[in-house]
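Incident review: delayed structure delivery

Summary: a single-chain prediction request sat in the queue longer than the usual turnaround. Root cause was a stuck worker, restarted by the on-call engineer. No data loss occurred. The affected request and its eventual output are reproduced below so the record is complete for anyone auditing the incident later.

Affected input:
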Amino acid sequence: MADPNARIDAKNRDFARFEQVKKEQEYRLAEAEAAEQFDEDFRIRTCDLGKFLRGNEKDRRAFAQELGEGLEQIGFAILEGHGVDPRLYEEAAARTVEVFTRPTLEEKLRYRAERHGSVNQGYFPIKETSDIHPDLVEGWVFCRRAFDLDRSASESYRWEDFWPIPGAEPLFRRLCQEHEKLILPIMQSVLTYLGCDPHHYDRRLSETNFGLRLNYYPPVRPEDAASGAARLLGHEDVDLFTLVPAPRIEGLQVLNRANSRWIRLNAPPGTIILNTGDYMQRITNDILPSTTHRVSKPRDEGLLGKARVSFPFNVYLWEDEVLEVLPGLPNPKYPPVKAISFHTRITSKYYGDDYAVDE
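Output delivered after worker restart:
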């Protein structure tokens, strides 16, 4: 096994051969507390999605401009006015804790993650969410197949095949359905900003695949705090975009590539943090970046003894869909590629070379 200290000191450029979009930034995967520099002045833009959902055509164009400018600048935005009941997020946070703490480790390991299609789905033990880094987080990825959503499969669906406790699937299904309502408004706004047909992705994103990732960051033990491990390594998301309801405990940090400093992102309760991923950078010809982010230990030592949870919703395409630069964007830098090849080539840096699928 590789030296764990070497993995803690690793940099993203050590794994550059796996990347499928241009990424020139360089950073340590784990936070180096004494060496990091922070951007205390930059503010992630807050955009009112209600302008699109409940406004007129002028309002929709205004939202598209605000969102597009924010994403082009940094790859992140904070969404308010999205219409999702904040009480749903409170329930989901409490239930996330139960998903990880009620079952025994032996019971959770029955659901150990395996690749289905493009995505590694199932349970990831603490320090094993990636082969390259010992993160201080337990993860659990549920894609569309884990929910009783598709009528054609409803008769054979069994929640026990995916969920370790009863009652979790209906709650998180409702959460996913609320977030699914936001996929087309966001994508149509992005395409409007880029001067493309706003409905170009409507078919691809109707009942598309997604990944709901539940993250449980247990209280940080003194030996883990001293080890140099991070709560979640610096990385870029692979997807089109991610929706993350604002967590209660700080930790999310975003890399400002303009100055190589980290931005502490503390979004207001009830808002959604939106960020673009590798799929989006590929199809927008590098206009909208896949921005580096990580989860650090909180600065307040009183919070080290508290668990942190998050439940990002990753928007994917089905495996047979083709990623190609949007029509109308000049000088395409990337050739067309199937989503499954693109996705698994990148994520094989986390799971090993044999994870990649070439089609």
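Verification: Residues 1-6 have pLDDT under 50 and may be disordered.
Action items: add queue-age alerting; document worker restart procedure.
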